[in-house]
Structure formats: structure tokens, C-alpha cells
Design goal:
Distance between the termini of chain C: 61 Å
Strand order of the largest sheet of chain B: 8-9-10-3-11-12
Distance between the termini of chain B: 32 Å
Shape of chain C: flat
Strand content of chain C: under 5%
CATH superfamily of chain C: MetI-like
Number of strands of chain C: 0
Shape of chain B: globular
Oligomer: heterotrimer
Number of helices of chain C: 8
CATH class of chain C: Mainly Alpha
Number of domains of chain C: 1
Radius of gyration of chain C: 21 Å
Number of strands of chain B: 12
CATH topology of chain C: MetI-like fold
Order of helices and strands of chain B: EEEHEEEEHEHHHEHEHEEHH
Structural class of chain B: alpha/beta
Order of helices and strands of chain C: HHHHHHHH
Chains: A mainly alpha (about 220), B alpha/beta (about 260), C mainly alpha (about 220)
């Protein structure tokens, strides 16, 4: 059997539709990961051990177990406890929570990078704890970790094919649906691969630009 | 103890970007001669040593060691830029001790001293270790053979580096500011070792240093560098006590004021 | 839960561990080959390695796996399923590992190479005796992270009907209907393996650091 260009061409519109869905899932999941990750990072620094330790455990646990199984868990268990979500929402939550455990580490590194003198200065001005965080520490910590955070957007996008198990109509789901009719898996998966590669490079472009700008600023 | 001409620089120039590091430089070193290179920083002294160690190539000019061009080899009738094989043959003459010691952190002290003799000179492990222990004894570190470099003081590390260099049985020993990274006390112990080396080994020494007392003690000749040129060359008594050039006088005064 | 179902999970665990171990071994081969090739003096070699690392870091592992299992047979090449799984995982993790290798080799100070030149080592001896032993130490922690990523990625093979832990978990779920318990159990299982791997890496890390004398491997005479 040889590569059938017509089959590849014919499937392209549907695959592109799938790509758009995958990108949506990435965007939604990423926003969640950014917010939740920051929450994790802050909670892991609280002085209240009853909060800090369980959060730390959960974060480590989620980070060291497969996203795929977590997606299964959400897909089957959420409805069972009465939470009915669309596939896209389920997928975005799965991605977002999983990657929040990575972004929280990035935030942590950024916060650790703020010099101790800044905390002391804030204390000497008797700023409240909340103000110290929002006005002094985070404004310094977050910008310097932007490139590292960006890299997780790419990583997250690359995990979107797994959303096929929660019936999100992303690229791999399209491949399976169309393939079930015409059995042109070679063409379908190859084109899908090219699309992923192109999209990943496209997302990587602004991230690399950010990295360069960041390096120049710190140089 | 000095013999015939062993190293010669002929019209050697080197530029880094727009700065001229060596400017059409020519000089000779005789076999067994001990030569100290002095001068303000950036005057090209270290570049001389790095070239002899093949770590830096000249832009123009010729360097010969034992009558053989260092960076060129004969192919048929033509001289072509030297390949790795030629450079390796030429490096047999020479070895170098660095300002920052550059011991291999992944090897214990004895291994640092024996690795190259085994792999490069082809000595048996036993033979290399016997010699290595002798040399470490000589530099006063016979009890540190099993330590890692990170467990030694800077002065001790530099003495290991000297033993490591001597283990290669070089014709030429290049010493690049070997005490500049050390506190005065530790520097003194390294310089004492080097005085011993100068007494006991029949080796040509090229030494870049700011330690003027040491230079006076061991050198046969001192070369004063300024802006990529040698502006004065004389035996140490003459150069230190009665320098001819104004620039040399100024330089010596500034160095002596420092210490 | 019956003994049969437990045995099923145990079989799945063995497959998962096989995928992890073989995937890591083959992944290391790819990582070193590509990582060192990216530092090669030859443009073509560098280019191929660059294409590999960039390509497989842009391609989802699951898509590579699907391609090997469902597309490749159309080109007349049917891989053994376990091998297809190992290959897909190794290609993916190897691309990331190559960056680790490259970074670790570049992190060895240039002065170390100069010292090796001054002792007249051959280029290959410089690599083997001086650069790699130091680079290896720097590689251990990031490689440990990749190992956990690899373990997590093994679950993907369940989607191409390889009977790993996740696949067998699905069978158990279907048989018992204990959805929440089974998936929670699976997650705990993976978590425990990850913890064991992390511990193992820590051990290697300490041994490696001792090889640079950073913590005394044994008492050194002072």
C-alpha cells in the first residue's frame, strides 16, 4: 500500500477542526494551570502545616501519576458524584490540574528567587502579609518565570491527544472516527502528526521569543 | 645547563576582535632555559603559553618547537595547517599548569597524576602509580593520594597539578600564573615546590607570574611584555635592578607597591 | 475482588515495568546518540540529531505510538506490540534526554578540556575520561525526572491494546463496576512506583556526587 494523497487531503478539514478543539482545550487548561498552580505554590508556603502538607502531598501525587488515568478518573467518577460536564470541560480540567502541579514548581522557583532583602524591606515598612505578596514578591517572581511557564503550554498541547479518552473531538478522535470508515490510518495519522508538529512549533515561537527577551533583560 | 635553541617565535601576531594581543613577535628559548614572562595584564604573556600548548592559534607567523613548525605540517612540498595528529605529536614536548589548577574533579589525586601517563604515554598502571606517588611525595602530598581534588586546599590542588604535569615528562613546562588564585601563604608553598622542581628537573620552564622574588630566584632570563611586544629581555639581576626601559621601571614599581 | 483479577493487575504491572525499564534503556541510547551528535563537528550529523530532537519534542508520544501501531503496518512493517510501545516511548523520552546530555556535556567547564589537551589526551579520551564522567553526574537529577515522565507515559500503551497496568485496570473496572476505587487504586499504584523510582534516583545521585568527592564516599585521610 502506498501513501494516498487524496485521502490525506480529504481528511484535512476535519483534522483541522480537531486541531482547533485541541487548541481550545489547551487554552482553557492552561488558564486553569496558571491560576491553580499559583494557588498550589502559595499554599505550599503557608505556615499552617495542616494545609501545607496535604497540598504538598496532592501536588506530588498528581505530578507523578499518568494524566491518562487521571482523565479516566474524571470521566467516570465526576458523573457518578453528580457533576455533569462537557467532554471539553472535563478534558480542560484534567489538563489544567495535571499541569498546575508543574506550574506550581515554576512559581515556587520564581518566589524563591526573590531576594530575602525584599521580604525584610516589606517587613520594615510594616506591609501586611497580603500586600507583601501582591505588591512586592509576586510582581518580581512572576515575570522571571514567564518563559518556563510558556514551555508548559507546549507540553500541555502535546498531551491533548489523550483527551480522546474523554470523547473530546480533538485530532486523534477525528483520526479514529474517519479511520473507522476508510481505514486510511497511515495517511490520517501522518497528517495528524504533521499538524501537531506545525502547531507545536507555532506555539513554541512566541515562547522562544519571550525566552530571548527575558535573557536580554537579565543580562 | 642551557643548550641549543628549542622554541622560537617568528613574526607571531594574534588579534582578538579589534585588540592586538601579540604584535609581530619574535624570540627564542633555549633548551633547559628558565624564562619568566612579566608585564601588565593583557600584554600577551598568557597567550604565548596558550599557543605553545596549542590552545590558541596565531593569526600569522610561525612557532617552531625542536625545529618543527607547531601549527603547520609538511604535506608533499607544501606546509598546511596542522591536523590533530600533528598537534598531538607536538604536544608530547609540552605541558601546562593553569591558574585555576584544573584538576579533574572526577578522579582522586593519584588518578589525576597517573591517567595521562597510562593513556597517553602508555605506561603500565603500576609503573604510573609508582612514579605518581614519587611525584606527589616531591610536592609534599604523599598522604593525599586518595583524596578528591574538592577535598584539598587551593595550594594543595596546585601542587597536585604540578605533579600531574611533571608525570608527563615534558621538555617544556608552562606555568600560567600558577599562584594568582592563591592566598599569599598558599602561594608560598607552591612557589617552594616550583623552586625544588627547577633545581631537580632538567626542563625548560616558561613562567608567567607576578611573583617577582620567585622570578629572580629561578629565571635565567626575564622577558618584559607590553602591548603584545617584548620591550626588554635580560637576566633577572639586570632587569630587576637596572631596567633600561621606562615602562619596565613603572611596571616593576607598581608590582612592588602591590606586594 | 477475586484472585484472578488481582493476577490480571499483577500481569499489567509487569508489562508497565517492562515498558519503563526497556523504554529507559533504549531512550538512554537515543539520548546519548542524539545528544552527542548535536555536539559533533560534522554539520550533517548535527542536523540529523537536531531534526530528531526538535521533531520528537514537538510530536505527542501518543501520536507516535498510533503511527507505529496503526500506520506502519500499511507500509508493510508490523512491529511486535511491546516493541512498538517501547520504541514510541523511547523515541519521545530520548529526544528530551538528548537535551539533558547536551546540556550536561556543555556544562563541563572549557578549562577541563584545556587541561586534557595539556596532558595530550586524544579527543575521544578527553570525552571518555574527563568530560563524560563529570557530565554524567550532572545528568542524574534531570534524567530521574524523565524516568518518572516515562513511567507516566507508559499508560498510553493501553490505548493500543497493550495489556499494561492501566489496560488491566479497565478490565477490572468492567468486571467489578468499582469505577472510582479501581482508578484511585491505579493512581496509587503509579504513585508508589514513581516514589520507588525517585528514591532509586536519589541513591544514584548520592553515589555520583561522591564520585566527585562532594560528600565523602569513605573516610579520607586528612
Amino acid at each position: 500500500m502506498t501513501f494516498d494523497w487524496t485521502a490525506a487531503w480529504d481528511a484535512l478539514p476535519q483534522l483541522l477542526d480537531g486541531l482547533v478543539v485541541a487548541l481550545w482545550a489547551t487554552v482553557l487548561g492552561y488558564v486553569l494551570a496558571l491560576v491553580l498552580g499559583l494557588a498550589f505554590a502559595l499554599l505550599r508556603r503557608t505556615e499552617r502545616a495542616w494545609l501545607r502538607l496535604p497540598v504538598g502531598f496532592v501536588v506530588e501525587f498528581i505530578r507523578s501519576t499518568p494524566l491518562l488515568v487521571q482523565l479516566f478518573f474524571l470521566f467516570f467518577v465526576l458523573p457518578a458524584v453528580g457533576i455533569e460536564l462537557s467532554p471539553l470541560a472535563t478534558g480542560a480540567i484534567g489538563l489544567g490540574v495535571h499541569y498546575a502541579t508543574y506550574t506550581s514548581e515554576v512559581y515556587r522557583a520564581g518566589i524563591d528567587g526573590v531576594p530575602a532583602g525584599q521580604w525584610e524591606a516589606a517587613k520594615s515598612l510594616s506591609l501586611s502579609r497580603g500586600r507583601t505578596w501582591t505588591r512586592v514578591v509576586l510582581p518580581q517572581a512572576v515575570p522571571r518565570v514567564v518563559p518556563a511557564l510558556g514551555n508548559y503550554a507546549i507540553a500541555m498541547f502535546k498531551d491533548t491527544p489523550q483527551l480522546t479518552v474523554v470523547t473530546v473531538a480533538e485530532v486523534l478522535s477525528v483520526v479514529k472516527a474517519v479511520g473507522a470508515q476508510n481505514f486510511r490510518y497511515l495517511e490520517l495519522i501522518t497528517v495528524a502528526g504533521v499538524l501537531y508538529l506545525a502547531a507545536a512549533l507555532l506555539i513554541a515561537w512566541p515562547v522562544r521569543a519571550l525566552e530571548r527577551r527575558y535573557r536580554k533583560e537579565t543580562a | 645547563m642551557t643548550g641549543e635553541r628549542f622554541i622560537s617565535f617568528d613574526g607571531v601576531s594574534k588579534h582578538f576582535g579589534s585588540t592586538t594581543v601579540l604584535d609581530d613577535l619574535s624570540f627564542d628559548i633555549r633548551a633547559g632555559e628558565r624564562v619568566t614572562l612579566i608585564g601588565p595584564s593583557g600584554s600577551g604573556k598568557t597567550t604565548i603559553l596558550r599557543m605553545l600548548m596549542t590552545l590558541t592559534r596565531p593569526d600569522s607567523g610561525t612557532i617552531t618547537v625542536d625545529g618543527v613548525p607547531l601549527f603547520h605540517e609538511r604535506r608533499g612540498d607544501a606546509l598546511v595547517p596542522a591536523g590533530e595528529a600533528h598537534l598531538r605529536r607536538m604536544r608530547r614536548h609540552t605541558t601546562m599548569v593553569f591558574q585555576q589548577y584544573n584538576l579533574f574533579p572526577n578522579m582522586r589525586v593519584l588518578r589525576n597524576v597517573t591517567e595521562a601517563p597510562v593513556h597517553v604515554l602508555g605506561l603500565s598502571r603500576d609503573e604510573a602509580e609508582g612514579r605518581g606517588r614519587e611525584l606527589l611525595e616531591l610536592v609534599g602530598l604523599g598522604d593525599k593520594v586518595d583524596a578528591y581534588p574538592s577535598q584539598l586546599s587551593g595550594g594543595q590542588q596546585q601542587r597536585v597539578a604540578i605533579a600531574r604535569a611533571l608525570a608527563m615528562r615534558p621538555d617544556v613546562l608552562l606555568l600560567d600564573e600558577v599562584t594568582s588564585a592563591l592566598d599569599p601563604e598558599l602561594a608560598a608553598e607552591v612557589l617552594d615546590v616550583l623552586r625544588d622542581v627547577a633545581r631537580t628537573f632538567d626542563v625548560t620552564m616558561l613562567c608567567v607570574t607576578h611573583a617577582m622574588r620567585f622570578a629572580r630566584d629561578v629565571s635565567d632570563r626575564v622577558l618584559m611584555f607590553n602591548e603584545g611586544r617584548i620591550i626588554e629581555s635580560a637576566p633577572p639581576e639586570q632587569l630587576f635592578d637596572a631596567p633600561e626601559q621606562v615602562r619596565t621601571k613603572e611596571f616593576l614599581r607598581s608590582v612592588i607597591d602591590e606586594t | 475482588m477475586s484472585t484472578g483479577l488481582w493476577l490480571l493487575l499483577f500481569d499489567g504491572l509487569l508489562v508497565t515495568l517492562q515498558l519503563t525499564v526497556f523504554g529507559a534503556a533504549l531512550g538512554l541510547v537515543f539520548a546519548f546518540a542524539a545528544g552527542l551528535a548535536r555536539l559533533s563537528g560534522r554539520r550533517v550529523v548535527r542536523g540529523i540529531a537536531f531534526a530528531y530532537t526538535e521533531g520528537f519534542r514537538g510530536l505527542p508520544a501518543l501520536v507516535v505510538l498510533f503511527w507505529l501501531v496503526f500506520a506502519l503496518p500499511a507500509l508493510g512493517l508490523q512491529l511486535e506490540p511491546l516493541f512498538a510501545g517501547v520504541l514510541a516511548l523511547a523515541l519521545n523520552i530520548g529526544a528530551y534526554g538528548a537535551e539533558v546530555v547536551r546540556g550536561a556535556v556543555l556544562s563541563v567547564p572549557a578549562a577541563q578540556l584545556e587541561a586534557a589537551v595539556a596532558l595530550n589526551f586524544t579527543p575521544w579520551q578527553r570525552m571518555r575520561l574527563v568530560v563524560l564522567p563529570q557530565a554524567l553526574v550532572a545528568m542524574v537529577p534531570p534524567m530521574g525526572n524523565l524516568l518518572v515522565e516515562l513511567l507516566k507515559a507508559t499508560a498510553l500503551v493501553s490505548l493500543v491494546y497493550l495489556q499494561d497496568l492501566t489496560f488491566q485496570g479497565q478490565i477490572v473496572r468492567a468486571a467489578t463496576g468499582e469505577t472510582a476505587a479501581v482508578f484511585a487504586g491505579l493512581l496509587v499504584g503509579y504513585g508508589v512506583i514513581a516514589l520507588a523510582l525517585t528514591r532509586l534516583v536519589r541513591l544514584v545521585e548520592r553515589r555520583a556526587a561522591a564520585g566527585l568527592g562532594r560528600t565523602p564516599a569513605r573516610e579520607v585521610t586528612r
